[in-house]
From TrEMBL:
Protein name: UDP-GlcNAc:undecaprenyl-phosphate GlcNAc-1-phosphate transferase
Membrane topology note: Multi-pass membrane protein
Originating species: Pilibacter termitis
Places the protein is found: Cell membrane
Cofactor(s) named in the record: Mg(2+)
Amino acid sequence: MIVTSSRMIESWIIMGFTISYIITLFITVFISLLLTPLVKKLAFKIGAVDVPNKRRINKTTMPTAGGLAIFLAFAFSTLVLINRQLIEVDYFRYVLPIVVSGGMIVVTGLIDDIREIRPWQKSIGILLASCVIYFFTEVHFDSITIPGIVRWLSLPDYISFPLTIIWIFALTNAVNLIDGLDGLVSGVSIISLTTVGIVGFFFLPLQSVFIPITIFALVAAIIGFFPHNYHPATIYLGDTGALFIGFMISVMSLQGLKNATFVAVLTPMFVLGVPITDTLFAIIRRKLNNQSVTSPDRAHLHHRLLALGFSHRAAVLTIYGISLVFSFIALLLNYTSKIGIILLVIAAIFGIELFIELIGVLGENRQPLLKALKVIGNRDYRQKIHKRKERMKEIKRVLKKNEKGEG
């Protein structure tokens, strides 16, 4: 009887927290929704605006720094509203370094939105925020497990530290790079963070419950901003928002990687499939074109969709769809067997490469997979290639004959 009563009390406590937490999420959405117009006015006053140019989509001067509204709503939600509900389990100590480091990223992005600082200067801000995460939280790589290769390998600090910094740097900048269309980053981040939150809730141990609690507070803050940012946008995220969201995604996903297993590493990579794929192919494309990796171009995923005739909204919705597919694969990774994981990864890589070649992200003349499939499935194309090879052989034969005649 006593056991039954204690279970009932425990279930009532959980139910009470769940209801108050859901109410908190709605309040967070509302705060973000109200703060955004105020941030818009502030952006014009401090000069945080996007002036139209050749690379930008906007035709008129637009306020940026919209990420400030997201950050303020998130900070109030976690430090005040949620902390009051979890004061007995010391949630404040857990979330404070995350909010402080996020604030450092917001300040860095805000300065860039006003003055457009250099990449290395932004990198200093990201590095300092990453150091706060590493030294004041437990968010870092402690060990790694690779099935069939490494069962359990504890990582020393001189490996753990650079791995953590590289992870945060890579994902923060990857999210920032896709911020090119109205509502693109905010929509993709809602999908990605929700997936990370679901994985954290269902697949991480109970002591990691703070992860989904914090993630869904951030999702709520982004949802409140989203109506102002979706096409046609009245305010942009700016580097203030894109860097902050990318940073938070990297930190939140890294918490699930604290003891990195093969599936734990793959999950956030698939969740963030859109920004990671776009960044990876941007680097490859620029290397092939003998350009600097940091040099801007108009061949990103969203640029290519627009060039193919997609409307602004259709391009954004298409990328949302791709992000949902990646997130679905990420969820499947946590359910399937080792063989299933391998098959999913192979199928995903094949699908990504095929899509990238079809829309011409690497360039119209760089389509190895499409050409291989054409060789397999098109007899006329095979014969055409064969004739071309025979013609080249004949030309070489004639050239050699001429060289001998001249000799």
